[in-house]
Amino acid sequence: MRLAIVLIVLTSVAMVAGGAAQEPEQLHVVLPRDAIRSIEKPTFEAASRAKLNEREPVLGIVGEREQRAYSTWQLDRHEIVNDVFESKPIAVTW
């Protein structure tokens, strides 16, 4: 079975003062572990009916029988989707 995974990756450049990396002074916990709930049973719409901005980045997966697009803006709020794709469990993370 052939499976193609398409990822759109956004990167950022860290600015380093004076050319040397600085050690963090203290680790601050913003959210406790597992505070962000995953999406457990995602629902999908046909591409022709989906309400996405044409410039919205997505994580895409293409298989032999199915194609899916996961909104990175939705993943910003949930960070993980547990799904079943072509009868196989997958985890989509962001």
Can you put this structure into words, describing what you see?
With 94 residues, this protein is mainly beta. The protein has a domain of 56 residues. It has one helix and five strands. The strands form two sheets. A three-stranded antiparallel sheet has the order 1-2-3. The protein has a two-stranded antiparallel ribbon with strand order 4-5. Strand 4 and strand 5 form a beta hairpin. It starts with a strand and ends with a strand.
Topology, please?
Elements: E1 4-6, E2 58-62, E3 67-71, H1 72-78, E4 80-85, E5 88-93
Antiparallel strand pairs: 1-2, 2-3, 4-5
Helix content: under 10%
Report how far apart the termini are.
25 Å
Major beta-sheet overview: 3 strands, antiparallel
Unreliable spans: 3-17
Structure classification: mainly beta
- The percent range for strand residues is 25-35%
**Secondary-structure element order, N to C:** EEEHEE
Number of helices: 1
Total number of beta strands: 5
Strand order of the largest sheet: 1-2-3
Instruction: Give the overall pLDDT as a whole number.
Output: 78
| Spatial extent as radius of gyration | 18 Å
**What form results from the Cα inertia axes?**
elongated
